[in-house]
Amino acid sequence: PILYSYFRSSCSWRVRIALALKGIAYDQVPVNLLKDGGQQFSTEFKALNPMQQVPALKIDGITLSQSLAIIHYLEDTRPNPRLLPQDPKKRAQVRMISDHIASGIQPLQNLSILKQMGERKTEWAQQCIASGFQALEQILQHTAGRYCVGDEVSMADLCLVPQVANAERFSVDLGPYPTITRINKALQELEAFKVSHPSRQPDTPAELRA
Fold first, then answer.
1. For position 72, which CATH number holds?
2. How confident is the chain (210 residues) per 10-residue block, as mean pLDDT?
3. Domain GST C-terminal: where (predicted)?
């Protein structure tokens, strides 16, 4: 497998965690979202992913984009360890939380939107994340055990950790979100989350390396 990734991309980070948890070895091709006006806009990368976004994963003779679609494929083809619970209700909760983050928070504060916000970008990002976290905190109070849904790591957790990192990067006050904070801390102790961290990627700038 070949993962086209950017060290700081939260969507790429989700997939890196999934690959690490499932023990899938892969090669990584960095796509710098800032350099040369954004390497994702190159003709070569557009041929790979017409949406001109990371991640993209070449695996089993196909190329997939969209982080949750990639994780679902890995789950279908390499089911151990499981990232979607067998219980239909818990499975639905995992998908709900994943979509809440991947559709309801992250796109509103990603690079392309922030560029358009100009000087207001930090304020905008803080508002989007805080609004999403207020809802997410309430949801997690009903679904969480040690992790987002019960005591097993799931796709929801793969979405949570990168989003909390974004919140920290934009100086969002996490005080009102004790459940989110607790789960994030527990997940960061797991090896798959450590090796997938933006500070430990091939394209991490020297000053940001762990």
1. 3.40.30.10
2. 97 98 98 94 95 97 98 98 98 98 89 84 93 98 98 98 97 98 98 98 95
3. 87-206
